[in-house]
């Protein structure tokens, strides 16, 4: 694993003793009093290896199940907002769990920090456990708590069992920690570098008291502490049992091979991809209440030989309450790597990490430096980074036919629709919670089929959205509706899944207090692929009761209409919103993206979409160019409508700024994306061609988007659910279509500030291409 800071940042990595980003050195410095068990058997027979491989996986799963059963938190019980991990003695991942994947980035950083900074004082011994929630050491935000437990054999650390769990409340300026007004981390829950919670198998009362006293929910916090400890204790005992049965060297050999096998699997797959650079960008709006800014996030992936390098150069400077630490940024990237490139490795993430280089840029939104506010980053910038990385890895994988069925377009929740509320329950007891319904966010389109309606994003494999009745039991709320939302799927040749929406009111309480702390409301944060439309933005709406009887409110199950003067769209950052009984709060989760030009969708599938209420009849004609005759598509009118739309696109578009002027006679070599092919012209030049026309667009070194006809549209053209950004932000935003100059088909789309340069999203290395496909 290689993790570096740019040279320019080498002198600016600390703030009053706190790291900008903890990036472990190539060689850890550990006190001699702590020994690491490194001996492994020279060989392990295949049967024993398979038995141990699955035993170790089961150990990690039992670790997670124990946490789930002991924790009393809905965030754990329904959301599975945690992850257990198994690491080697020197903190290389063996397994992460099939739970929230952000956490598969943080636990090795914490363990390496502990080995470097705690081995001498207070020391590391049998029965010890360390706990931490410092985002600059290795958590997504302060609410995510990491626990690390060394497992000893004959006086040496044999391995580590670790976990991370989102705690409901750990103090700070607002209940739940989601502070939309935060300017610095001093207004957020306190952050602690790793400290010893368990010593010699006994929980330290002073640390437990300190941890629980700062929480508004001390009893729940105490229970969650026991959940993370119990999970680690179960896993540690199981590891000790395996060592006693098979011998330490054999178990260690199995661990080494698990990592080596996942590494080889990763190497084999990226070897199928030519060298090159892929780029993506999205925008987050509003850093604090009252702000009207729009802020750019950028992510670049370079593939060179057997190495992937990620950097965030081009991201705007850190600001307000939308920042992410290095750990969250790194975790977001690994969510995609795990799911797309090594989905068959049982989450053995340590292998890919050997050949991934992370280059954070301190002081930016995606790699913030202290004292930045970062508590909201886990729900905003982390998910937005997943969305960007999704498209980088997908476009790279599409260059290899063997990998094209292994990825999806962006799913929903690319900016989490946080609904954080607190107050007194219907029983008069304090509560703090977040709505977890959006764990049912949809999956994006595949290269060969539609996405999955309310299917849950791939980066939280075992999460479960709670039932309405469960939320109504836990919180003083009454649901008005919870359903999939019509016209909420990203349009495309294959469409994203439909997303989920809810509406509720306060019930049997005087009021509840909300913190609105999200982004992705004024523009999409989940870009589509190859001409597919992005997933629609988040939507927040609120209507005060104005004395209307509850029975009348319950009788009306439709969505809130902004044409109603009583309804207002909520800003993405709004502090201390009071909701009383009868006040209606409506939230729709941002949706999943499509893949391919919507005008290429099978008309019969569009008719089925309308019949199942995934899309309205109006959207069928507007988005897909399908004219229905009753329940069936009218073939002749549909063909005419689609032809008219393509012609109108070209008539309104600007001319390409880059033109191919070669001799033609192009010989097809390979597919590059779902809308582009690679060819060689009569002069031997490598060129990029439109799949829609077969004609060359530009030389391979050029930006193909500049060789397309470009149509700039308002953001509202990206989705039937998109709204005009001007209500909340000052920046003029565009939805750009890059069109095949011959056919008018969409090759790619882009959300951008007006005046922003066209993104050069794919830059393939010509030497690598020639070595792969010949001259």
Automatic annotation (TrEMBL):
Coiled-coil intervals: none
GO cellular component terms, A-Z: cytosol
Pfam name, any one: Acetone_carb_G
GO biological process, one term: glutathione metabolic process
GO molecular function terms attached to this record: 5-oxoprolinase (ATP-hydrolyzing) activity
Domain Hydantoinase B/oxoprolinase: 45-598
Family matches, as InterPro entries: Aceto_COase_bsu/gsu, Hydantoinase_B, Oxoprolinase-like
Protein name: Hydantoinase B/oxoprolinase domain-containing protein
Organism lineage string: Bacteria, Bacillati, Actinomycetota, Thermoleophilia, Solirubrobacterales
């Amino acid at each position: 694993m290689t993790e570096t800071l740019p040279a320019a940042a080498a002198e600016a990595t600390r703030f009053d003793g706190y790291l900008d980003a903890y990036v472990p050195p190539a060689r850890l410095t550990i006190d001699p009093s702590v020994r690491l068990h490194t001996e492994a058997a020279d060989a392990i027979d295949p049967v024993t290896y398979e038995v141990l491989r699955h035993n170790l996986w089961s150990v990690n799963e039992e670790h997670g199940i124990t946490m789930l059963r002991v924790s009393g938190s809905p965030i754990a019980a329904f959301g599975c907002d945690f992850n257990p991990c198994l690491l080697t003695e020197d903190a290389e991942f063996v397994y992460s769990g099939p739970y929230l994947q952000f956490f598969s980035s943080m636990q090795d950083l914490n363990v390496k920090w502990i080995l470097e900074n705690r081995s001498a004082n207070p020391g590391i011994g049998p029965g010890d456990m360390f706990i931490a929630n410092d985002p600059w050491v290795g958590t997504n935000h302060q609410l995510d708590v990491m626990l690390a437990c060394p497992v000893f054999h004959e006086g040496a650390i044999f391995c580590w069992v670790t976990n991370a769990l989102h705690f409901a409340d750990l103090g700070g300026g607002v209940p739940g920690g989601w502070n939309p007004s935060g300017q610095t981390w001093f207004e957020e829950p306190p952050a602690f570098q790793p400290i010893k919670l368990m010593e010699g198998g006994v929980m330290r009362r002073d640390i437990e008291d300190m941890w629980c006293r700062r929480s508004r929910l001390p009893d729940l916090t105490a229970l969650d502490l026991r959940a993370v400890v119990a999970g680690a204790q179960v896993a540690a005992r199981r590891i000790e049992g395996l060592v006693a049965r098979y011998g330490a060297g054999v178990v260690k050999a199995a661990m080494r091979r698990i990592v080596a096998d996942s590494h080889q699997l990763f190497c084999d797959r990226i070897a199928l991809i030519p060298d090159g650079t892929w780029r993506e960008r999205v925008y987050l709006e509003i850093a604090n209440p009252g702000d009207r800014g729009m802020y750019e996030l950028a992510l670049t992936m370079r593939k060179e030989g057997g190495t992937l390098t990620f950097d965030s150069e081009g991201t705007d400077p850190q600001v307000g309450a939308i920042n992410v630490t290095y750990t969250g940024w790194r975790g977001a990237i690994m969510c995609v790597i795990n799911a797309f490139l090594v989905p068959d490795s049982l989450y053995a993430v340590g292998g890919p990490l050997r050949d991934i280089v992370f280059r954070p840029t301190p002081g930016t939104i995606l790699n913030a430096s202290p004292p930045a506010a970062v508590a909201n980053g886990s729900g905003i910038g982390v998910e937005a980074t997943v969305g960007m990385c999704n498209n980088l890895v997908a476009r790279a994988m599409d260059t290899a036919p063997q990998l094209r069925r292994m990825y999806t377009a962006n799913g929903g929740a690319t900016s989490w629709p946080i609904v954080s509320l607190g107050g007194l329950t219907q029983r008069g007891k304090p509560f703090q919670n977040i709505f977890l319904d959006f764990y049912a966010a949809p999956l994006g389109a595949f290269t060969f089929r539609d996405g999955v309606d309310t299917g849950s994003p791939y980066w939280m494999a075992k999460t479960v959205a709670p039932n309405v009745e469960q939320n109504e039991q836990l919180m003083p709320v009454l649901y008005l509706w919870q359903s999939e939302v019509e016209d909420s799927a990203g349009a495309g040749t294959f469409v994203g899944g439909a997303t989920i929406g809810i509406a509720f009111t306060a019930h049997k309480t005087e009021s509840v207090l909300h913190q609105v702390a999200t982004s992705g409301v004024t523009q999409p944060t989940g870009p589509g692929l190859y001409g597919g439309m992005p997933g629609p933005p988040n939507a927040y709406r609120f209507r005060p009761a104005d004395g209307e009887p509850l029975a009348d409110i319950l009788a009306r199950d439709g969505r809130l209409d902004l044409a109603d003067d009583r309804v207002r769209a909520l800003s993405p950052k709004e502090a201390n919103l009071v909701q009383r009984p009868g006040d209606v709060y409506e939230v729709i989760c941002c949706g999943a993206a499509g893949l391919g030009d919507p005008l290429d969708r099978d008309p019969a599938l569009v008719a089925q979409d309308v019949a199942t209420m995934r899309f309205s009849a109006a959207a069928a004609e507007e988005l897909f160019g399908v004219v229905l005759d009753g329940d069936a598509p009218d073939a002749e009118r549909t063909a005419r409508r689609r032809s008219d739309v393509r012609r109108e696109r070209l008539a309104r578009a600007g001319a390409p700024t880059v033109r191919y002027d070669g001799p033609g006679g192009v010989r097809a070599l390979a597919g590059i994306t779902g809308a582009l092919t690679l060819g060689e012209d009569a002069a031997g030049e490598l060129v990029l061609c439109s799949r829609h026309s077969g004609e060359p667009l530009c030389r391979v070194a050029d930006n193909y988007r500049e060789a397309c006809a470009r149509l700039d549209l308002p953001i509202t053209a990206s989705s039937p659910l998109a709204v005009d950004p001007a209500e909340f932000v000052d920046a003029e935003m565009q939805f750009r279509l890059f069109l095949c100059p011959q056919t008018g088909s969409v090759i790619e789309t882009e959300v951008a500030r007006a005046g922003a340069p066209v993104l050069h999203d794919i830059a393939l290395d010509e030497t690598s291409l020639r070595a792969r496909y010949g001259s």
